[in-house]
Amino acid sequence: MSSVSPSVADLGLPGGEPSSAQHGGQGSGRRWGRRHPPSARPPALTAAGAVATKAAGPALAVTYLSLLVLLPLAALISNAFSGGWSVFWNAITAPQAVAALELTLAASAIVAVINSIAGMVIAWVLVRDDFRGKALVSAVIDLPFALPTVVAGLTLLALYGVDSPFHVNLAGTRLGIGAALLFVTLPFCVRSVQPVLAELDTEIEEAAASLGANQRQVLWRVVLPSIVPAVLAGAGLAFARAVGEFGSVVLISNNIPFKTLVASSYIYGLTQSDNLPQASAVSITLVAIALIILIAIGWVRRRFDIPETI
Amino acid sequence: MKRSRWLLPLRYAVLVYLGLLVLLPVGTVFFRAFQHGLGTAWNAFTAPDALHALWLTLIVAAVAVPLNTAFGVGVSLILARHRFPGAWLLDALVDIPLAISPVVIGLGLILVYGKTGWFGNWLAGEGITVIFSVPGIVIASAAVSLPYVVREVLPVLQEIGTEQEQAARTLGARPLTVFRRITLPNIRRGLAYGVTLTTARVLGEFGAVAIVSGAIAGKTQTLTLFISNAFDNLEPESGYVGAVALCIAALLVLAALTLSDRNRDAWHGKVSA
User: ipTM of the assembly?
Assistant: First the structure.
């Protein structure tokens, strides 16, 4: 066991030193003070094994994460700036790139606002209303989440495309992009609000009402303040999703530059024409936007969750 | 308290919104797929390219989903049970694929594993092709579906705490036994939810796979690529049929989720009672 203990200490992990000291006195009755019965293996070996697994787990996880996500991201950054700052700047300020980014951000913002309102109403109905087939409605909300994006695009095209049974042709229009984004972001907006609304004690609302508040006051003073953080979080998720959306948009938008070409389609096109540095530059811009949103959501969550637990 | 005055119009507004946005479009795809009869649909479905696309999609899922499940459970355990510097960073990094366009992830993978990429020379030397080949599709699918298991399992782990595990540990159970007998039964439903979401995402991934696969018919064409390709080639018929296949998969996923949600609610009720 003496050959094992130093390796524990070598790892520099807390507990390495004391454990070797503790097991140094093994056999002197000290082990009877241990809380669990001694195992067949020497205790120090188990401790070393535990430390090794402790370090191996995170190491393995970080390696996997690196191979799939972190290295590609690093490669994107390095590729985007491989020609220097000016090349990067020219890539993201090219007229087509600017138009694509503007369209993407504007469409995503509008969609996030619309679906936040719709999501709030839907969550409200799901929590407070009771009717036949409510479970079905609840399942329908998750459908865009379960449905592959390209299938989502195809479904919208089938109904609102060239041979629409309603004679509403949204193919190649910005409205079509909006419809696709509304479709794919719907679950985020509903599911982030629903649990908060369900947790909300109706007693508080009843108390407010019994103290003379009318329905409008109850809604504005009691209900909305408690669900606003959840609505914001949902809107943020929806916005982040919409900014990067590709599959559902690509079929219905027809990818017309300056009109219906969204950022992810623009990146796809650049990649297909082997224009990788330019594609990377636009990608990094998208990633930066997405990360800012993600950090903002995290902040909102932490900021409003902590008082509840205290 | 009066609620009915508000609730009824809202209910119908919700039904109309969901109907126009979700239900009718999905219904139309089924109609379009079968509008020329079952035989035509069946022929489109059993065309060699379609069958190969289906087969490839299933193979990719069979590799990517178990990998991500192992990763997800491992990371959840690490984050929930150990305190270490940088834990918050790991937690945040796991979420990255949710926030990034799949196209961007695909591009990043090309820059690492492609011919001119970081590992390009080494991979070529070993005779391994990743990009424009099946391994690339697997990596892309695993990358985009990375967060789902963690997001579902981690909250459950944090909620159940460590008391049961500690009790088992004190009674002499080995770590593996504790995991198998205590932890796993506790996280089972969250895990099922996460695995289902991962599977759904892998089966339906398009953007990332479109970039790394090259979409060669009969070789590196997954079902989603087959659908978009059919549409580009003005054969919407087979596209709709492929879409119906994926729709049915999605509906199965949905049924599984709804079912496990109901179980989860029942389970939560039991805990709080």
Answer: 0.84
